[in-house]
Amino acid sequence: MSFSLALRHRFPGFALDIAFTAPTPGVVVLFGPSGAGKSSVVAAVAGLLRPDAARIEVAGRLLADSAAGLHVPAERRRVGLVFQDARLFPHLAVSGNLRYGLRRAAPGARIIGFDEVVDVLGLGGLLARRPASLSGGERQRVAIGRALLAQPALLLLDEPLASLDAARKDEILPYLARLKAAWALPVLYVTHAADEVVQLADTLVLLEGGRVVAAGPLGEMSARGDLAWAARDDAGAVIATHVAGHDPARQLSTLAFGAAAIRVPQLAMAPGHAVRLRIPARDVILARDMPGPVSVQNVLPARVRAVTIDTGRHTALVEVLAEGQAILARVTPDAVARLDLVPGAPVVVMFKSTAIEVLVA
User: Fold this and answer.
1) pLDDT tens, position by position, 20-32
2) What are the strands of the beta sheet with 274-280, ordered from one edge?
3) Angle subtended at Cα 49 by Cα 156 and Cα 54, rounded to the nearest 5 degrees
4) How far is residue 108 from each of residues 36, 104, 112, measured CA to CA in Å?
5) Does one domain contain both 254 and 206?
6) Which residues lie below 8 Å from residue 120, measured CB to CB, with a gap of 6+?
7) Is-contact 67 56, C-beta < 8 A?
8) Within 10 A of 292 (CB to CB), how many other CB atoms are there?
9) From residue 353, how far is each of 5, 220, 260 by CA, in Å?
10) 262 and 113, same structural domain?
11) End position of a domain, from candidates 221, 253, 275
């Protein structure tokens, strides 16, 4: 099953021409600067904008096909929509706001239960409170819960954390990650914040000026040195792994992907638990030969896939493949020349366990 979208629309002074396909269920993140067209895509998917031309299909359900004259009205699309502003009913307690979502569910569509939403989103202690007494993060959790209880076939989140400060964002992101695991829903998530992308995205769609710059699985997109995304100071490959075991004596946990193992400071997770990691490109070291004894815990054989020179920063972005997983390294052009880092060259990729960021578990 897939989420397939192709649309064209002309606004005064701006043209939208966007197409992508992503597997479902999963989280598709639209990332780009203000004015890139992200919210217009959400409006078109929700049925609030009728594009000049469009074909939108979600998990086998056709929502729009202008060539066939099909445009499913917004109220029949079974879409849950959450904006920057939670838009809760101020006169209702949290429980009342949530149950309003249940009342909006189509007959026979109920799958997601009230108690389940309360548990996953951590709303149990808030049910009797009014929206005015909630923090911004709490209000957004309630808004997401209300949207889920309407039993949507698709969840649309249009920059839901944009109005929150860093502390409130840190509060809500773990709940959004839990939402991914709890319900096999297609989710379209809009943001211009890289930290939200790396924690939540399964598929990343980069937008600029109303066009798709690139689209694909997050693990692949995060390690592409040819994208402007990789020029960020916090650029780094995102890798899906699972807990393979623990070594309490060494205070380390082993995370596996393919036949490779990565060691990180010990985690409080059971073997088999899924873990998403980000390896900052600036902390990756490349060598042509296996080193002797070193303090670095992670030393993997790899092969160079591509090299992109960032002339503006006098650095190079080297993409390497280890066990089929792309990893990105930021080095100097001098290192590229000295090590003869050309596509296909065998290398050793190294990174400290303490440099790895555990993002989602």
Assistant:
1) 999 988 899 999 9
2) 260-265, 252-257, 236-247, 274-280, 357-360
3) 90
4) 38, 12, 12
5) no
6) 175, 178, 179, 182
7) no
8) 5
9) 40, 22, 14
10) no
11) 221
Q: What pLDDT digit, counting tens, does each position of 193-248 carry?
A: 888 999 899 999 999 999 999 999 999 999 999 998 888 888 999 999 999 999 99
108 and 63 in one domain? yes
Considering its fold, how many domains does the chain have in total?
2
- Distance CA(318)–CA(141), nearest Å, equals 39
DSSP per residue, 115-147: HHHHHHTT-GGGTT--GGGS-HHHHHHHHHHHH
Q: Could you tell me which of 222, 346, 328 has the C-alpha nearest to residue 290?
A: 346
Element of type H or E holding 200 = helix 194-200
Residue 161's CATH number: 3.40.50.300
Q: Report if residue 116 sits inside a domain.
A: yes
Average of per-residue pLDDT values in the chain? 91
Asked whether residue 172 is domain-assigned, the answer is: yes
**Residue numbers of the domain that contains 269:** 236-360
Q: Which of 195, 221, 247 is the last residue of a domain?
A: 221
User: What CATH number has the domain bearing residue 255?
Assistant: 2.40.50.100
pLDDT digits (tens, 9 = 90+) for 251-299: 999 999 988 899 999 999 999 999 999 999 999 999 999 888 888 999 9
Cβ pair 305, 292 in contact under 8 A: no
What is the maximal distance between C-alpha atoms in the chain?
68
Q: DSSP secondary-structure letter at 88? A: -
Query: In this structure, are 249 and 176 located in the same domain?
Result: no
What's the predicted TM-score (pTM) here? 0.91
One-letter amino acid for residue 153 of the chain: A
pLDDT score at 329? 97
CB 186 within 8 A of CB 153: yes
